Structures are given as structure tokens and as C-alpha cells.
Write the C-alpha cells for this entry.
Amino acid sequence: MIDEILLVDKPKGMTSFGVVARIRRVLSEKAGKKVKVGHTGTLDPFATGLMIIVTGKECKNAENYSKLDKVYEATITLGKTSSTGDPEGEVSDISDKVPDIKDIQLAVDKFTGEITQKPPIYSAIKIGGERAYKLAREGKIVDMPDRKIKIYSLEVLSYEYPQLVIRTNVSSGTYIRTLAQDIGTELGVGAYCTELRRISIDKYSIENARQLSDFGIND
């Protein structure tokens, strides 16, 4: 498991750095020396799903896996917003209007193709050399630059108010939290992402990923 990539299913509630640290500890113990381990793109703590972990000499090729297209499944809660776009933020009631499925489909259809997206202020993007989330937590005003992203497909899997479940195939750099918020804004009811799972990264699938328990990690 050294000098290769590992496909790992990140559990809910753990940071991506936590996953890397645990795998590094296990591999280093087995090798009897410190093993270099890195990730190729983070998932938020509330999210689950596929991470590509690079180990040993493969770490120098990390960028080869970091700008690939991805597929996500997400649960979006309508009628409320979150300061962070996810369950970890301050949640506010916005509207008790119940959109029908036709409204939902019309709104969703507007977000396919190449679109402009403003990343969330609670993100790891660097602004003036500082992480945006750090500036936001310090109460500083963060002006996030818009970016062009591509949403190749966006499918409604189920809808039972207030829960909307979608699957989407997107380009690297797309924030699903922002997509959820934008759908809520389009509907005029507000929304935030309550569950998020990464299903695939390019040709790499969650079906081939290992659980942390497979590495003997149970904490």
C-alpha cells in the first residue's frame, strides 16, 4: 500500500486531514518508518464518500488526480438556509412555501452546462494568502471571486418536501453547498445541503473504495 493510490470511503464527521493522518499512522507502523501520505482533494466533515489518497512516491503525482470530474449525491433541505451552506452552520427559517415537482425541475434545469458560481466563504480557497474559512471565522469580510464551472448532468432522484435528493456530475472546483443554495434562491425558498456523498472521481468509483476499518482504523 506504499507508492500507490488508495481509494477510501471517508466517514461522516471526520475531516479529510483526519483520514490522511490515520492512514499515515497505520502505514508508518507497518513499514517501521514514516510514510508520506497525502490527499488529492478534500471533503467537508459532514460529507462522506470517495477520496483518492496518495502514498510514498505517488505523492509527487497528486496533481494528476486533483482536477478530475466528480459525481455527487446530495440531500438538499428547502425552506431554510445555513451560514455555511451545510449542517455545521447557523440555520435560519426562510419560507414555508412548498414548491411542486414542476417548479423543482425547472429550477434544477437552469443549473446545467457551464455556469458561474461563487464559492462559499467557508472554504479552503486562499484569499490574499489566507484560507477563506479562517478569515470568515475571524469576522472579516471575504470577497469570493466568481468562477466558471461545468455541470454535465443534474438529476432529481427524489423529492418529498422539504428534502430534495439530487445526483450531479460536475467539473473540478464545483461546490455542491453553493449549488444547493443557488437552487433554493432560484425557487425563492432558501436551501442548504444537509447530506453529501461523493460517488466517483473520473474513472474511480466508490464501489472500489475501502473503509477505514479495512486498515484496522476504528477511531
Q: What stands out?
A: The chain has two domains: 5-67+203-215, 70-201. Residues 109 and 154 are 7 Å apart (CA to CA). The chain has four helices and 13 strands. The two ends are 20 Å apart (CA to CA).
